[in-house]
Design goal:
8-stranded mixed sheet; alpha+beta; OB fold (Dihydrolipoamide Acetyltransferase, E2P)
Length: 118
């Protein structure tokens, strides 16, 4: 299945383009090309957030994955490190559905297969 929307993000315009994409694409499948800069597990342990270069930590676009179906271990096996630290600073393509959580655009990662490292 081909995805109808491609959001390609360069270092210079990441924040504006990612935030705009999130506002324009809720509940649409998209292919995101961007550079992860940091991953962290929330204090509750219930979610890992992946933040991208050029985005705001509190309001900008991010990807999330949850412990269901052993996703934390699957991501570690696929990419190394507890939160995919080996992806930091590399350009990746992530396929998934864009949604809004508390007015913040996000993409949920359900499988490491959604992520391709360039």
């Amino acid at each position: 299945m081909s995805l109808p929307v491609v959001v390609k993000i360069t270092q210079q315009d990441q924040s504006r383009a990612l935030d705009h994409a999130g506002a324009m694409l809720p509940r649409q499948l998209a292919r995101l090309a961007a550079m992860p800069r940091h991953g962290n597990r929330r204090p509750t342990g219930a979610v890992v957030r992946v933040l991208f270069a050029g985005t705001d930590d509190r309001e900008g676009f991010h990807c999330v994955f949850f412990p269901a179906d052993d996703m934390f271990q699957k991501m570690a096996d696929a990419f190394g490190g507890e939160f995919g630290e080996t992806l930091e600073g590399k350009t990746v393509t992530i396929k998934g559905e864009v949604s809004l959580f508390k007015d913040r655009p996000q993409m949920k990662i359900n499988s490491p297969k959604q992520i391709r490292v360039k």
